[in-house]
Amino acid sequence: MEIAPPPFDLGAIAPFLIVAVGAMIALLADLFIPPARRPALGYFALGTTLVAIGACVWLWGGAVPRLAFANMIAVDRFGLFVTIVTLIGAALSILLSVDFLQEQRLGYGEYFPLMLFTVSGMILLAFANDLITFFIALEILSLGLYILAGSARGRAVSQESAIKYFLLGSFSFGFLVYGTSLIYGATGTTNFTALRVALEGSGLTDNPLLLAGLALVLVGFAFKLALAPFHMWTPDVYSGAPTAVTAFMSVGTKVATFAALLRLVTGALPALYADWSNALFALAIVTMILGNLAAITQRNIKRMLAYSSIGQAGYVLVAVVASDTTQPGVNDAAQSSVLFYLLAYTFMNLGAFAVVVALARPDDERLDLDRDYAGLARRQPLLAAAMAVFMLSLGGIPLTAGFMGKLLVFRAAIEAGYWPLAVVGVLTSAVALAFYLRVVVRMYAGESRHAEERPARVPVPLAVVLAVCLVATIQFGILPAIPLDAARGALTITAP
Amino acid sequence: MVDNYAIILIMILTVLGFGALLLSIGVLVRPYKPTPRKLQSYESGVPNIEPLKGRYTPRFYVIAILFVIFDIEAIFLFPWAVAFDQLGLFGLVEMVLFIVILLIGYAYAWRRGALEWV
Which residue of A128, A143, A344, B5 has the fewest CB atoms within a 10 Å radius of its CB? Predict the structure, then answer.
């Protein structure tokens, strides 16, 4: 018997290969270069992500969409868009880390190779067209993050963060795998394309096995995306992990996982729209309310940003709910708003974390809102101004990327007939302003506790990150056409 | 359908019965002279109750993790070896790639001193 290997389309997974090979080279290089030269690995990792972005641009113009590796991988503009956003987030996080690690005396260790491995998982996640590929990608991504979260080995909070993330992450994988096996049991396939074909016009849509499988898979997703009520790990993990790592995982993981969620529910399970949209509808409402309300009471900036990221995930979820493939116009608006929001979120959230990183001192991370952020505008006017822009953008004030994102998301929800989601979204946005604006007020009106000390010097890589995030946040708010056109061009979730 | 399950039922009963038989033979045949020391879970080992806060070396874990990795590698090698002549050159190249990636990990573990038992 001859076993025919699947066609070997390496070009299709070029971005993934570049990052994975780059990670291995960095790992080997790490063994042989003296510790003092380790920052060079950061720039190597940065170069890798930039080359991978180049590969994405090359694929964008090439023969997409196409399926590769026995339909396990779908290379389409949707995946490429998400990959580019992820890679931008990764590149900025790497720049964020280079000086941060040195200053906090964390040691470089395997930091950059692990980051690249994690990014390779995110890329694979964006292209996954099979529940198995999806699972493996999520596993690659998570294993790297577990270690990165604990990379400040000497600090108990970092260890706690890693252990908590590892235990709950593994637990959530249990749900995913069990759900996958039930879906396979009901339909006989794990492939997204085959699933869609199998469910079209079949009597399977009421199959309890399939619905239970869908529910379990959604629980797994909710854990990974930190949607309430599956969010309990987020504040502890985000605040315990080194700030640069938190910045990276709060954007990259969310972007890639949301892409996978959207591909699964609209690409593979449009026949079950009534079921998953109801489930996600409830999750979105709970997430928006809980994330934003809980953020109000936080005094620690990292915990506040953690709850804020929960709330932001709720807004993205609103647009996912509105992605009804039977109404092409509505669906396009909803999906492009997901992509736009993820892009905007990447810049504004990374920017906010960049300011937190800039303020950290070796002996004290300076996380307390009352103590450390009060009067910041007088000591460091530029940093305070940047933070104010990011906070206003996260809060959804006009002329910022966050406002455009929310506008698109809520409009999509109303067009799809989900006005309760839009109402809750607008109300919780108003509540959210309370804690976003409080940071701004503290910075501009408070009395500084650190008035006598010299302002922190912002290293060049960090200044680059701040500048990029600032320009993008404002530019996407005033002229959203460029990213929005790209997002609209990226809506072909492969369906051959 | 029912017949298939009947076989499983017979097996369950056989296993339970056989286990009960062996245990009861043991009870009948063996001498029984308990001492406090004998009644501990691990009669000849270290005391089995200790404060949990004690420190223990992570070396065991490092070695165990490395063992698992290379054990899994071997599991992947077996089906490939069985189907080697059908997979041909493609399979060989794939497997060499797989092993090279693992060797990178091996080199890393070696250089970092994970294999040294100091």
Answer: B5
> Which residue numbers of B have CB closer than 8 Å to A's CBs?
83, 86-87, 90-91, 94, 101, 104, 107-108, 111-112
d(CA A412, CA A326): 14
Q: Which chain B residues are closer than 8 Å to A28 by Cβ? A: 104, 107-108
pLDDT on residue A168: 93
Domain boundaries, chain A: 269-491
Nearest CA in chain B to A27: B108
pLDDT the model gives residue A492: 67
Q: Is residue B116 part of a domain?
A: no
* pLDDT bracket for residue A488 (50, 70, 90): confident
The yes-or-no verdict on residue A1 having pLDDT over 60 is no
What is the number of domains present in chain B?
A: 1
For A8, nearest residue in chain B (alpha carbons): B90
Among A371, A369, A379, smallest CA distance to A440 is for A369
Query: Looking at beta carbons, which residues of chain B come within 8 Å of A26?
Result: none
Model confidence pLDDT, tens digit, residues A158-183: 999 999 999 999 999 999 999 999 99
B49 band by pLDDT with thresholds 50, 70 and 90: low
Indicate if ipTM > 0.85.
no
Would residue B85 count as lying in a domain?
yes
Neighbours of A36 (CB within 10 A): 7
pLDDT for the residue A496: 40
Is B118 within the bounds of a domain? no
Residue to test with chain A: of B80, B97, B104, most A Cβ within 10 A: B104
Amino acid at A481: A
Segments forming the whole domain that contains residue B27: 2-111
- The alpha carbon of residue B54 is apart from the nearest alpha carbon of chain A, in Å, by 17
How does DSSP assign B3-34, residue by residue? Answer: HHHHHHHHHHHHHHHHHHHHHHHHHHHS----
The span from the CA of A391 to the CA of A305, in Å, is 10
C-alpha distance from A131 to closest chain B C-alpha (Å): 21
Q: What is the arithmetic mean of pLDDT over A353-363?
A: 90
pTM: 0.89
Are the beta carbons of B101 and A24 separated by less than 8 Å?
yes
Joined together, the tokens standing for residue A467 give 């500048």
* Residue numbers in B near A5 (CB within 8 A): 87, 90-91, 94
Using a CB-CB cut-off of 8 Å, the residues of chain A touching B83 are 3
Provide mean pLDDT across the span B40-54: 66
H runs (alpha helix) in chain B: 2-29, 59-82, 84-111
Triad B62, A117, A218: Cα angle to 5°: 100
Nearest CA in chain A to B86: A2
A25: nearest CA partner in chain B: B104
Q: Is the pLDDT of residue A286 over 90?
A: yes
**B114 vs chain A: nearest CA distance in angstroms?**
13
CATH number of the domain that B51 lies in? 1.20.58.1610
